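Quarterly update from the structural biology core.
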Amino acid sequence: MAPAGDVDLAVRGGLVVTCDESDTVTDGDVYIDGGRIVAVGGPARGARRNLDASGTVVMPGLVNLHDHLRDMTPGLDAGEALRLDDMLRFYWRLNEAAGAAEYETMAAYSTARLLASGTTTVVDHVYPFHRDRLDEAAIAGYEATGIRWFLARGLMTRGYDPICEPRAVGFERVRSLLAADVPAERIMLAPVSFRQAAPEDYIAARDFATASGLRLYTHVAETAAEVRTVEAEHGCRPVQLLERLGFCGPDVTLVHCVLLSDAEVDLLARTGTHVVHCPSNHMKLAKGFTRVPDLLAAGVNVALGVDQMSDMFCEMRQEVLLQSIRHEDPGAVSPAVALRMATANGARAVGLGGQLGELTAGALADLICVSARGLNIGPILDPAWSVVYRAAGADVRHVIVDGRVAIEDRAFVALDIEALRRQAMDVIDAYFAKADIEASRIDV
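Predicted structure, tokenized:
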């Protein structure tokens, strides 16, 4: 019999999908101590706490590499059916009404929603910063739920003056975060896009990030209009311009990359730049098809983002289906590859490759337990296939972040989710009033 209290936590009785390089599947228990996995399987150990994972697939927590969590219009068809550029102009006007209360509350509400659906790590691309202390407000929202967060701190210097922020002011606000002991590894400096930041902003962001130990992040190559404008003004395509500006490399993540030339695919592979694909968002806004199979074949690290849509299970499934129809090839992206895009690939992009996104000894203890019983998912013969094609966020039973149980049996352990919901709805109502939006809340 195993001695009592060997480790902090034992996750017992599940089918473990490690997402390691060998795609190992085992029925061994997972042992966690000091926020890290110390063993998967092996000799039985005692634990100060046991979590019953019987009837579940135990797998790494999902990594959502792109989102905008400060969205204050959930459930409202504001901007619906608009294409990207028109939708942005609509939302820029609305954003004038947003302040610290909106940023903090919606960051908390949105990260709680992500946690409940199996996302344990998120990169939140936040902008605009048209008022003081919006950075701190967003971080407070993340911290309230316990998600593993990364702030892609937007720089929006042009596009719509009432919410633009001078570059020097943005840098000073980032310095204030660092002075307040926000870890540099949690911040990505993120000029929003070539629509909302000038080329010189990208150069300055590279210099600032290098001096401060920050990673870099931006939207790029989303629309044909963007490509035409960059070609007309600079004589090259958007990703090629980024390289000229010093904005490519292993510390850089590029979001969307819908319209890429062969030369740009090769450039991304050569420089080790990471790419985020958001398939549901691309379909909703009719952006086109990111060349994910080509990028992967070239050796580019490609991860997934929710980008204000549903959940990461949906994104994995959409990745497989979207590439299948695009290439008229059902095997263009396999379920196993989609699962890796949502776990280990995302971890690499935030600088935690080998430490996050896989269940191996020494890795950070972020994991989820997904119900494997029920008509919607069972019987399970190939766990990756079942997780990608059959599972949904509602099937997540337990969530562990940094070795701590955040959700047990679908209930938050230390978060009053009903109080947070009421707070969020009150803040949204007040925001609608300030933004002069007519909407009636329907409570159910």
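Residues 417-434 form the longest helix (18 residues).
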